Amino acid sequence: MTFLRTIPLLGLLLLLVACENLLVREVSPDELTRGENKLVLQCYLSPQDTAIVAAVSLSRPVLGEQANASGVLPGATVKLEDGDQSITLTYDAQKLFYWAPARQFPIGAGRTYRISVLLPGYPSVRATTTVPRPVPITEVQLDSSANQGYPGVGYYVRVLWRDPADQVNFYQVAGDTEYGGQEYVFGSPGQPGSFIPSRQIGHFFYEENSPFLTDQERDGGLMVSPRGRLSFAYSNGKIQADPPILVRAYLLNVDEGYYRYHQALERNNQVSGNPFAEPVSIPSNVEGGLGCFGSFNAAK
């Protein structure tokens, strides 16, 4: 009997010791390493784009002062070059980015581009990307099924293409739906508003699988995208879309930096708000700073 009474006492003692180990100790901020603001660069090149756009901002360390509340930085020198020519992007104070018309600096497939950002008071940053060649779409498949969580019928699209052999490729599939609809226009004071005909555009969205793919273990084979859901306006369980209805599918052959950065962002958004999810590390290919300098070539 003495032995049996001893077991609960030992358990209670172990519980008290465990609780002691779980006590939180307050740590002075002076004991922690303070982060530094770094330049963040976002820029993506494509032969299909009509403008070259770069965003320059500041990172936000957990500790320390916020050097710039908005994060957007004017006054930087953003230079793009490919070995034969170079261009300095102009800052647009209204749109808060640096840019240049693509006709002044055409982007070509297979060419390597370097970008640099100089801003007084911060280390310079630089990055490199090589623009992939386009991969043609061989087929677009449309189908429909009863909606899960939506009224009526859902319409879906898959993109098929042949992967170029003997090279590593990274892809993103995307698309949009354009159709006739109505737009509400507010009236003047004392006058009612009205609906007017307009063209509506909705983008594909992916409910099950990621739109980012690689040809790993499928080199040179037929590639099939995950199923993307077409976006329409609904009313009382019925699609509100007047003909003509246009579906545009895009296949982006992207460089590795673009792929890894955007895939990580997608996984981070999926677990956002879940305190038990494993943290997602966001990669950066910007030397001396953070962000992504990538490129893609699109087939439509």
Description:
This protein has 300 residues and is mainly β. It has 2 domains: 39-132 and 287-299, Immunoglobulin-like (Sandwich); 139-253. It contains 2 helices and 19 strands. It has helices spanning 2-21, 256-271, and strands at residues 39-45, 51-58, 77-81, 86-88, 90-92, 97-101, 112-118, 125-130, 139-146, 153-162, 170-185, 194-203, 212-214, 222-224, 228-229, 234-235, 238-239, 242-254, 290-299. The strands form 4 sheets. Strands 1, 2, 5, 6, 11, 12, 13, 18 and 19 form a 9-stranded mixed beta sheet that branches. β5 (90-92) and β6 (97-101) form a beta hairpin. The longest helix is centred in the first third of the chain and has 20 residues, at 2-21. The termini are far apart. The model has no long low-confidence stretch (mean pLDDT 85).
Arithmetic mean pLDDT:
85
Please state the CA-atom Rg, rounded to the nearest Å: 26 Å
Low-confidence stretches: none
Give the count of structural domains: 2
Bulk shape: globular
Quick structural overview:
It is built from two helices and 19 strands. By secondary structure, it is mainly β.
Which key phrases capture this entry?
300 residues, 12% helix, 19 strands, globular, 2 domains, 2 helices
Write the layout of secondary structure elements.
Elements: H1 2-21, E1 39-45, E2 51-58, E3 77-81, E4 86-88, E5 90-92, E6 97-101, E7 112-118, E8 125-130, E9 139-146, E10 153-162, E11 170-185, E12 194-203, E13 212-214, E14 222-224, E15 228-229, E16 234-235, E17 238-239, E18 242-254, H2 256-271, E19 290-299
Parallel strand pairs: 1-19
Antiparallel strand pairs: 1-2, 2-6, 3-4, 3-7, 5-6, 7-8, 9-10, 10-14, 10-15, 11-12, 11-13, 11-18, 16-17, 18-19
